[in-house]
Design a protein that fits this description.
The protein is an alpha/beta fold. The chain is built from 5 helices and 11 strands; from the N terminus they run E-H-E-H-E-H-E-E-H-E-E-E-E-E-E-H. It has a single domain, classed as Spore Coat Polysaccharide Biosynthesis Protein SpsA, Chain A (Alpha-Beta Complex), CATH 3.90.550.
């Protein structure tokens, strides 16, 4: 059983990407990264500056993580939902179906604490998602670990995951019939929004404003 880290990124500081990948040492066994701006992202381009891809590959090699980096030829017309679903499909090409696990992590996050028995607990689990702690004010536990089920996809929201047979692994608690999580609150992910440059944060805010105005990612 392997853990494959899944990264959706666009226009991030190389040192921030390096820090995130370095934090995966000892837990992740591989990395799948997908580049590119969403269609609604202000002045977005299909690919980030080349040095970011170079840094991802450099640090992944340095820490011994086999890595796949995908750079699209056009913007993500379906915005975050389309990009997240593609990330799962690309990861399916290298994962052992129903045995490996995916760790969904962003460029401004790092693994802060991983229990020594984390992988053993995942391997023994009969569940298809594991809930971890996200260290961010106002953010509760999230099922950032999901089993590598072929055909997993985002539906409606980039963090609303469904299996091909219609089971919801992450969604609206109380609205969606979400599958039970494996409790792994002792695995902690630090979310460091402040490490992004102010102009990068401003563009992200503008994207979310445009998405709300156009009723994107609204159920």
């Amino acid at each position: 059983m392997r853990v494959i880290a899944l990264l959706s990124w666009y226009d991030e500081r190389p040192e921030q990407l390096a820090e995130m990948i370095d934090s995966l040492q000892g837990f992740a066994d591989g990395l799948v990264a997908v580049d590119g701006a969403y269609a609604l992202y202000p002045n977005g381009q299909p690919c980030s500056p080349h040095e970011q891809q170079v840094e991802i590959m450099r640090v992944a090699r340095q820490v011994g993580l086999p890595a796949i980096v995908h750079q699209p030829g056009k913007l993500w017309a379906g915005n975050q939902v389309e990009k997240r679903s593609f990330l799962f499909r690309l990861a399916d090409t290298v994962a052992e179906a129903n045995e490996d696990w995916y760790l969904v992590i962003d460029a401004d996050e790092v693994l802060e604490s991983v229990p020594a028995d984390a992988k053993a607990r995942l391997q023994a689990s009969a569940r298809d998602a594991a809930e971890v702690s996200v260290l961010d004010k106002g953010v509760g536990p999230q099922p950032r670990l999901v089993r590598a089920i072929p055909g997993l996809r985002a539906v409606g929201l980039h963090w609303r995951y469904f299996t091909p047979d219609g089971r919801c692994l992450w969604g609206y608690l109380g609205k969606d019939e979400v599958e039970p999580f494996e409790p792994m609150g002792d695995l902690e992910i630090g979310h460091h929004r402040e490490r992004r440059l102010p102009e990068r944060r401003a563009r992200a805010s503008a994207y979310y404003e445009a998405a709300r105005a156009q009723h994107v990612e609204v159920l």
